[in-house]
Amino acid sequence: MRLRFLWLALPLIAAAGFAAPALADPLDGQYLADHAWLDEIRWSPAQPNADRAYPVIAIVDSGIWAGFDDFAGYLDDTSADCTSGQAEPATSLGIVDDSYHGVGHGTKVAMLAAAPINGIGAVGVSPYSPVVAVRITRDGDDLKVACAFGYLKRLAATQPLVVNLSFEMPRTAANQRALDALVRAGALVVAAAGNDPEPDEPVRWPARSDHVLSVASTLGGSARDAHLDLSAPGTGLTLPRIDGSWGPDSGTSYSAAIVSGAAALVWGRHETVTNPQVITYLLRRTATAATRWNATTGYGTIDLQRALAAKAPRIDETEPNNSTARAYGRRFCPRTCVLYGALAAGDDPVDVWRLRNRRTCPFSRRVTAAYTVRCRPSGGGAYIEVRVRPSARPWFGLYAIRVGR
């Protein structure tokens, strides 16, 4: 099986945007030379705060080039090589060295997401996030994504974790199970929607998987369908090469990396949040076109100024919980309670709650403009299902369901 990393070789295009404060500019050479893509998402040097605990960003890719000085001393010691099918701890950068056809795909992705402010190279969106590199291929063949997902599941169970997937591949049942388990462990997963060589090409796996943020490029050229969530710069970026030079490159691989960095930056702003759904909701809600979804850019381009200023909503349930077998069931509701949740038509259209102390339903069915609520008894308990109405797609938003008197 051959892995398709999602970049395109296109001419450099400057993006207009908001200028970062000159007095606070990092001294990293490539940041000073060209940070148009950071301006486009409204990033400024004042936003990352070295005193905050930012989530780890895991780059599941072709590794990181051992000769890329920007990450020297910054790569997290929980990095690993999965190319044998078993996770080998990366005691040095050489173990996860990025040699995929000499293009350094994983190196470029890692740089965009989290290159540190250290006076070398460039600056990533979340420069104080630790980076975990999980290499899944040496040459683009025989990729080991299930190994990577299983390895990262253990990390996600103990700490906030953003996982970047800048590739496309055919879906298999085993890989899907491993990805679902990673999401259940608490990871926030971001994936490239795929480049679009043909008109109206659909979003590919893993980006089309439920509970995964699917990312397109702001200037088009991306796969498109109802699974698309957000967009970010992906055209004409200046990125590192393995020979030590920098040059133009493009693709939704890089759009996803930027959103992964944005997710980590916003999550660090809300340090007490443990539910990644809160962060994905904020990114969707504050995107530039959030009130009007379209098949080219989803809910719009990420806007860090708005996302960082927004108040975190209350969302009680965790994902995935879209069947009775995976119902969210911590609410006992002996008399009354309110269930707080979020739905997104593209990747999370249904939530199921179990009312453990009830044998009968407190109501039969409710219908709103955006979603329906129904309750049914089963197995000595009661289950409440909240589902996006087909006529409301592609809708996303919050709900609060009062149970009892």
Keywords:
single chain, 405 residues, alpha/beta, Rossmann fold, 2 domains, eight-stranded mixed β-sheet, four-stranded antiparallel β-sheet, 18 strands, 22% strand
Commentary on this structure:
The chain has helices at about 30-35, 35-40, 105-115, 145-155, 175-185, 250-270, 275-285, 305-310, and strands at about 5, 55-60, 80, 90, 130-135, 160-165, 165-170, 190, 215, 230, 235-240, 245-250, 335-345, 350-355, 365, 370-380, 380-390, 395-405. The longest helix is centred in the middle third of the chain and has 18 residues, at about 250-270. The chain contains eight helices and 18 strands. The model is unreliable at about 10-25 (pLDDT under 50). About 20% of the residues lie in helices and about 20% in strands. The chain is of the alpha/beta class.
Largest sheet: 8 strands, mixed
Q: Which CATH first-tier class of the largest domain would you pick?
A: Alpha Beta
CATH topology name of the largest domain: Rossmann fold
Unreliable runs, pLDDT <50, ≥5 residues?
8-23
Share of residues in strands: 15-25%
**What's the helix count?**
8
Distance between the termini: 56 Å
**Outline:** globular
Structural class: alpha/beta
- Domains, number: 2
Spatially, the strands of the biggest sheet line up as 4-3-5-2-6-8-9-10
Going by CATH, what is the homologous superfamily of the largest domain?
Peptidase S8/S53 domain
Q: What is the typical, i.e. mean, pLDDT?
A: 88
Strand runs, count: 18
Summarize the helix and strand pattern as letters: EHHEEEHEHEEHEEEEEHHHEEEEEE
Question: What portion of residues is helical?
Answer: 10-25%
